[in-house]
Amino acid sequence: KLPSDSFKYLGWCDIEEHCVQGNQLRCPRVREGPSEEELFFRKEEHTLRRRKQVTDPEKWEKRLQENWENCAELNLSFQDLGDLYQVENFKRILRRLIRVEKLWLVDNSLTDLSAIKLPRCRELNVNKNHFTSFKQLPKIPQIQHLSLAENNITTLSGISDFRHTPLESLILKRNPCEFQERYRQLVFSNLPNLKILDGIPKLPEDCSPPDVRFFYRMCTIL
């Protein structure tokens, strides 16, 4: 085991005599440790010695110290969310991000954030997760830039929900839906205000009417 093993369930602000400040952490962990009972069954009860009882005033002080409600720009990528208690605590933090404008959640094995609302979020990066549908994304009414590269989105069903948002840029690279016939035309027909798709600006051929393929298959007999 590494020397840091006994500290793996502690938050950075719980470790005594540290010199790291919160604003120096680029991807801070937001998880809580398992219960004492779960530690016992894991045979990791030695970590209990490092954990202390926290009073209500200390809990409130810690909540204020995190100050997620006033966070405007946040990177919570690469959280390694392997256990259920980690996922639940992660979502608890996301629900507190009522003022966040830029949010990165890259490579977190996320599957469903539909219960999360980010009312001020303008830029969201959820690359390298496990989303299979646009319906599984959080509520982001003010979104302008959305990156969904390297997920598992198979169809464009639900993409029209973003029609009434100020979405300007969308990245869907390396998703199965990218291989759908007339992929770019379908995206732009559902999102008429979209300007950039997969890093490429809107082209004249992207504005073809939905039924254009019908005319391509017609022949005229004179």
Helices and strands in order, then pairings?
Blueprint (H helix, E strand, L loop, with lengths): L35 H6 L14 H11 L6 E3 L8 H12 L6 E3 L18 E3 L19 E3 L21 E3 L11 H8 L5 E2 L2 E2 L10 H5 L6
Parallel strand pairs: 1-2, 2-3, 3-4, 4-5, 5-6
Antiparallel strand pairs: 6-7
Keywords: Leucine-rich repeat, Repeat
Protein name: TILB protein
Summarize the structure.
This protein has 222 residues and is of the alpha/beta class. It has 5 helices and 7 strands; from the N terminus they run ααβαββββαββα. The chain has one domain: Alpha-Beta Horseshoe (Leucine-rich repeat, LRR (right-handed beta-alpha superhelix)), CATH 3.80.10.10.
- The end-to-end distance, rounded to whole angstroms, is 82 Å
The computed structural class is alpha/beta
| Helical residue percent band | 10-25%
Q: What is the fold-level CATH name, i.e. the topology? A: Leucine-rich repeat, LRR (right-handed beta-alpha superhelix)
- Poorly predicted tracts of residues: 212-216
Query: What is the arithmetic mean of pLDDT?
Result: 82
The H-level CATH homologous superfamily, spelled out, is: Ribonuclease Inhibitor
Strand order of the largest sheet: 1-2-3-4-5-6-7
Q: Estimate the strand proportion.
A: 5-15%
Oligomer: single chain
> How many structurally independent domains?
1
Strand segment count = 7
**How would you sum up the global shape?**
elongated
Protein name: TILB protein
Organism: Sylvietta virens
InterPro entries: Leu-rich_rpt (IPR001611), LRR_dom_sf (IPR032675)
Keywords: Leucine-rich repeat, Repeat
